[in-house]
Amino acid sequence: MQSIPTETVDAVITDPPYNIGLFMHERNTNLKKMRENQFAYAGWDNMEYKAWKRNMSRFLTQCARVLKKRGTLIMFMSIIKVADIIELATKLGFYYKTTGVWHKTNPMPRNMNLQFVNSTECWIYFIYKGTSGTFNNDGNVKHDFLESSVCPNSEKNFGKHPTQKPLKILKELIGCVTNEGEVVLDPFMGSGSTCVACDILRRRYIGIEIEEIYFDIANSRIQYLDKIR
Ligand SMILES: C[S@@+](CC[C@H](N)C(=O)[O-])C[C@H]1O[C@@H](n2cnc3c(N)ncnc32)[C@H](O)[C@@H]1O
Fold first, then answer.
1. What whole-number distance in Å separates Cα of residue 193 and Cα of residue 44?
2. Is the shortest distance between the CB of 44 and ligand 1 below 6 Å?
């Protein structure tokens, strides 16, 4: 992110590590029996709380630098971490708008006879240095509650990412808070879902990913779009 020029990005839309791996490991669950690609075993999600918060603060500082005035930041996050992110971001000049919910209509029915099945994730919505930014609602009421299936297999043609987000949700958010030709940054792009959605909606995009295997999946997804156009 440090190599991106200052005030050049219209929106940061991203899905950073929720850092709930340690939390899940320490609970007396039967996680070990779960699929290998479950997020608690993904490897990027196991930081100590203080280190994670420090990293999130550094990430948000860079967001504040690269975003234009009245630019948008939308971050997916685990519900238990929302207050931490709001505290860090507001200190850096972000105006908190809302915490939205993504409801998954077909979650894994894990422990369904013992507890409420987890079917939601959050997204936190901020404006940088302003109280409102681009909001394309075509005159319709937009709820901060989005619904879709979990990421369908048809979007995993080039390899699997354990926390891949469905294009339906990203297209909804990107279409609402940006205009054609604007620049969207996803510094934790994973398999590149944000970039693919931007490409479809004719937004420009920058994606960053630390793991080569996911970076390659993202590249393949984007190249495929070019091929079928
Ligand atoms: C929750 S996943 C994002 C998934 C993405 N939304 C998708 O649809 O595929 C977070 C990603 O951030 C990456 N990551 C973790 N730390 C990173 C860092 N310091 N820089 C860049 N990417 C990082 C992980 O490898 C992981 O792929």
1. 18
2. yes
